[in-house]
Amino acid sequence: MSNWKIKTSLFLNYFVFAILLNSVGTVILLVQKSFDVSKSQVAILEPFKDLSIAIVSFLVTSYITKIGYKRAMLIALGFVTVVCFIMPFTSSLIMVELLFAAIGSSFALIKMSAFGSIGLVTKDEKEHISFMNFLEAFFGVGIVVSYFIFPLFIDSNNEASKSWLNVYYLLGSISLLAFVLLLVAPLDESAAKVPASENFASDFFKMFTLFTHPLVIAFILCAFFYVLLEQSIMSWLPTFNNDVLKLNKILSIQMASILAASIALGRFLAGIVLKHLNWIAVMISCLVLAGGLVYFSMPVIQHFIDSYTGSGITQLKDVPLIAFVFPLIGLLLAPIYPAINSVILSSLPKPKHGLMSGLIILFSALGGSAGSLITGNIFQHYGGKTAFYFSLIPIGILIAGLFLFNRLHNKSKATAVKV
Question: What CATH class is the domain 4-185+198-415?
Answer without folding.
Answer: mainly alpha
